[in-house]
């Protein structure tokens, strides 16, 4: 079976197990090179949202500005691939982005008289479909009188650029007792559900193979 046949036969994939975070599917008669390409793309080739730039308006915490920006960038964000474009593919073609390729999130901890932890639930997004996958991710601990106030801008990206854009935490390929069968296991970061990662991964590998074949045909001509 070549990958074109695999694409057409996607509905026949056997799901061994799945839940909200992880899925395991059986790949039958799929050559190893295609199966491994799918594994890699599911890990870091499917676009998801992550905070890319942070404007620090106020930061009197013990965490320096670059540390705070780094922590914010690593918070997984729920992603809607149907609504948003990757910046390089967006019609706006603007460095500042637009509502179709960039989302702003803001956080203002306010003043506090007690020591407390600032959590991801305090990040307010201008688009409810792009928000932290969990409300309980710690960002920074503030002492009395300390405060952080930031404006963050999230965009779609891929893990090949930075690990914060990885769609999956794990993506493994294991052999079965049958030589023509392998099991692909994918665990999502929460940005996408596991089925979306598999389907997007299949489409991405198919697109890359198509582009590669077109390059080869041009060289041969």
| Amino- and carboxy-terminal Cα gap | 27 Å
Topology-level CATH name of the largest domain: RNA Polymerase Alpha Subunit, Chain A, domain 2
Number of domains: 2
Radius of gyration, in Å, reads: 21 Å
CATH superfamily of the largest domain: DNA-directed RNA polymerase, insert domain
> Which residues form runs of ≥5 with pLDDT under 50?
none
Assembly context of the chains: single chain
CATH architecture of the largest domain: Beta Complex
- Put simply, the count of helices is 4
Number of strands: 10
The first-level CATH class of the largest domain is given as Mainly Beta
Neighbour order of strands in the largest sheet: 1-2-10-9
Biggest sheet architecture: 4 strands, antiparallel
Give a topology summary.
Layout: H1 3-8, E1 14-18, E2 22-28, H2 32-44, E3 48-59, H3 65-73, E4 102-108, E5 116-119, E6 124-125, E7 138-142, E8 148-157, E9 168-175, E10 181-188, H4 194-220
Helix pairs in contact: 2-4
Overview of this structure, please?
- There is one protein chain.
- The protein has 4 helices and 10 strands, in the order αββαβαβββββββα.
- The chain has a 4-stranded antiparallel beta sheet. The chain has a 4-stranded antiparallel beta sheet with strand order 3-8-4-6, covered by helices on one side. A two-stranded antiparallel sheet has the order 5-7.
- With 221 residues, it is α+β, with helices and mostly antiparallel strands.
- Helix 2 crosses helix 4.
- The mean pLDDT is 91.
- A hairpin with a 3-residue loop joins strand 1 and strand 2.
- It has 2 domains: 98 residues, RNA polymerase, RBP11-like subunit (Gyrase A, domain 2); 110 residues, RNA Polymerase Alpha Subunit, Chain A, domain 2.
